Amino acid sequence: MSSTQQPAEQSPRRAGAGARRGEPRPPAPGGVLWTISGDVRALLMLPAAFTLQVAHPAIGAGVDEHSVFRTDPWGRGERSLRSVQLWVYGGEQAAEEGRRVRRLHKEIRGIDTRGRRYHSLDPACYAWVHATGFPIYLYAGRYLLRRFTPAQERQLYREWLQVGRILGLHDRDMPQSIEEYWPYYRRMLAEEIEPTKVARELVATDVPLPRPTGGSLPVRLLLRLTWPALRAAFLHVRAFVTVGYMPPDARAAIGLEWSAAQERRLRRFSTAVRLLVPLLPERLRYLPIARQARARWRAGAL
Fold first, then answer.
1. What pLDDT, on the 0 to 100 scale, is given for residue 18?
2. What are the pLDDT digits (tens) for 127-143?
3. What is the per-residue pLDDT across 32-41, written as a single tens digit (0 to 9) for each?
4. Nearest to 61 by CA among 121, 21, 108
């Protein structure tokens, strides 16, 4: 259940400047998460993580009933992406963004697909939302970035726990080591994950999708004329990367099919992306908040 409102527009300030005493801090600059989270290739990983989140009965019900992902998918995606970036690169704003996310979800409650009452901040639900990103980064990273060493995997998980604290998760809510994480992950796949209504929509290629409304007048006119073709292409690409970059055991739990031919296409596509992105200038390779944070880090301002 990602954030659905836009934070105030301001550049993240220097980490620690004016931060509340004792509040959680983002991962240190130069770490594994710092390196990969702001890379544009992370955009290809996020659909798989979101789909795995909403395959949980309670989270799927909450998104189905309370999210604007159907009526304002572009705005919602932009706001959620900005929020995620602030957790890693936001300095003192990270903790405030975490508090804002919790405030947004405070009143989200209902009955899930199995007839159970849920509240979006129940640790069993809230922790799964955060926990899904870790296996997606590991699996998709093998295609788009590199295979992480065991030491890097452990560091990434430690940094993932740091971000969880920013979101208000207590240590008791999340497995505290990789050795504890994988049994938890497998149990969730076996006992909780299912092909919820929202999960099925996110891999469908025949669902409604409103066209983007921003941009200049010529851009809006062009989108109006070409949207039927662009919509079809976008939905097919979204479904392809969502299923392709999801770990096979998660695919199986949701009931998603994946063929050998699709796997070959994914490997060709991923190789092209993996080789091309490092050649791009920094302004194209990194997302805006990450790019700004990297510039401050090089200047010694972090």
1. 42
2. 999 999 999 999 999 99
3. 999 999 999 9
4. 108
